[in-house]
């Protein structure tokens, strides 16, 4: 009887193994991809709860007097590096007899949690704050808005902004810093011109609201508006803001102001306007960024103005700006399209001799010329 049972058990085990092997055949045996591991680690990190260091928590409490005041608690929380201990201190203090949190203790705790990206815990503290309308100030609300935008909770940030607007306490009203935080957050939301166009309408309304409230725009908010218009392909609106800076807002443009405009004009092929602004900014001692310099050289080359493109490329190198491989390739391609293949290869060789391109970039550009234009019968002469 036992032998019969043993035979049945072995048969069932073999059947299970066979079924398991057939079932496993439907799945790949390859190692998980990098993106999958990244997503998996992100989920695991989000789901894992940090563990309180009880010893550090007790040590922090021991540094407080029996009847501590808000300033003393703020000092301990500020010096504490563990954000979970800071949160526990905040919650512990809430339960102490005769102690009431004020704007300073809320502020330091929210900043600690925001810096540590403990956004859910921060949200809980913010909800406690909002339940006490008489507590708050502009700096505290600005920090809350900033960390909500960092957490990609723009709706939550806007709700805090609306609360500031409607507050009877003048110390809680929005300032230029509040508006700049929101403008920056909206600029960071766009991933293409369509999305930027959608957020640009909100930015336009926000900017108008700021001016209507009697808050003077500063260079940061004006540059944010220009950048938003450039990213949403409204370059004429960006130019309008630029020309209003000194006349209407009594605020002179800086290097970023010119940079955004030159890049936007080049993106639309308006190289003449871009060069006018470029010359103007040079007179003021400003230098274009890498991105805008590359845009200018590319736009000139694609517009057939190869000589000017090469001249600006050399100026770019003289100004210690980094030329990217796309710019090098565009200039060489456009020279070749004008039938000057020999000139293109000589220019590439000059870049290589002056160590402007490394070996990998040089060979990549050389292959492009050879494949597209068949520029050399003796290819080895250009190689290392």
UniProtKB/TrEMBL annotation:
InterPro entries given in the database record: Mito_RNA-Proc/Resp (IPR051240), PPR_rpt (IPR002885), TPR-like_helical_dom_sf (IPR011990)
Which Pfam family is an annotated match for this chain, by its short name? PPR
Q: Which residues form the signal peptide?
A: none
The PPR repeats are at 254-288, 324-358
Q: Which GO terms describe its molecular function?
A: mRNA binding
> Is Transferase set as a keyword in this record?
no
Superkingdom as given in the UniProt entry: Eukaryota
| Keyword ATP-binding in record | no
* Record keywords, A-Z: Repeat
Give the record's family classification.
Belongs to the PPR family. P subfamily.
Classification via NCBIfam families: PPR
Q: State the name under which the record lists this protein.
A: ATPASE EXPRESSION PROTEIN 3
